[in-house]
Design goal:
Elements lengths: L1 E8 L2 E9 L10 H20 L4 E6 L2 E6 L6 H18 L3 E7 L1
Helix pairs in contact: 1-2
């Protein structure tokens, strides 16, 4: 199962943690994991490299975390769009789970 947990503070999305494998197909052939991974990388790279946001990103084995360090960051809108995209994928593929928790 691929789980994307969005971190919130007072209803604002301030980051996420994406981990796991969807199990849709064998590793390396899984289109669901590829879709999630591509979206995660796009969001992380946009926040850190193009928006130059004050954010921390960490990459581990089958896991990526991103957290904004400042409030009222324009990247929050991108994180909202990312959550909507992940919820769409979750609705189509049962191997993806989207959660929200208070940071």
């Amino acid at each position: 199962m691929t789980t994307v947990t969005f971190l919130t503070e007072e209803s604002r999305i301030i980051g996420f943690d994406a981990k796991g494998h969807s199990g849709y197909a064998a590793e390396g052939e899984d289109i669901v994991c590829a879709a999630v991974s591509s979206a995660v990388q796009l969001v992380c790279n946009t926040v850190t490299d193009f928006f130059n946001a004050d954010a921390d990103a960490a990459v581990g084995e089958n896991r990526i975390e991103l957290r904004l360090n400042s409030s009222d960051d324009p990247s929050e809108k991108l994180l909202e769009a990312f959550r909507d995209h992940m919820e769409y994928i979750q609705a189509k593929y049962p191997g993806v789970k989207v959660e929200t928790r208070e940071a």
